[in-house]
Design a protein that fits this description.
The protein is mostly helical. It has one domain. It has eight helices and four strands; from the N terminus they run αβαααββααβαα. It has a two-stranded antiparallel sheet. Strands 2-3 form a two-stranded antiparallel sheet. Helix 6 packs parallel to helix 8. The longest helix is centred in the first third of the chain and has 20 residues.
Length: 241
Amino acid sequence: MIPRPTHPAPAGMEAKLTVLEQIYAYFDELTGQTDWACRAGCAQCCTVNVSLTTLEGVYLYRALKPPSPQLLAELAKRARAPRYRPRFSLNDFAWRCAQGRDTPEEHNDPRWGACPLLEHDLCTVYTHRPFGCRCMLSNRQCGPQAEASLDEWQLTINHLFLQVIEHLDCPGWTGNLTDILLYWHHRPAGAAADRAAATESPAPFPANQPARALLIPPEHRRAAGPVLQKLQQFMAPFQES
């Protein structure tokens, strides 16, 4: 079981950001040996529908140092346009599935537009991109007539990392990239993302949940064991006493 972070985390936001970097680096290590079809300039999957946690939002907002007036204007424009806005976090979804509860389908249309952080088909914050972008890997080239292709094992690993990152950011929220960046712009980046601040957010965010049920199918449990153990080591400083 993943240790549940305390409220507030004993080592604070900076320690959580350090662990987030470690999780990112570990994922890059696991996937770096595969010759993915993804290359610089391949931006078919870089849409306005990216979602992330508030912790990842702090990490990303700081990389913008701060957002330029042009980017803020673009974010404000996107905030008035259609985009994917999750109603449930992934851990909430997993727990609902474990309990046999239905989860309404959420609409996500790539035709709603490109990511506001994309310029000339290149990510302007690539080294600080959220995990939802990092795990968008494909075994074949994508394009207008094709979709990304990923095997079931990699999907399991992606879900596991996403669940751990959400678990790390408890309490906190999950939301669309545009909304999360605007949230931190209107609130000092690095401040505690406690539930009381929800009324200050520019959009309703689903609250992050602990990872009570992991989306690991039976055929992948043995292979996923060492990966989960490594992630648990990262989370150890936040274990409740």
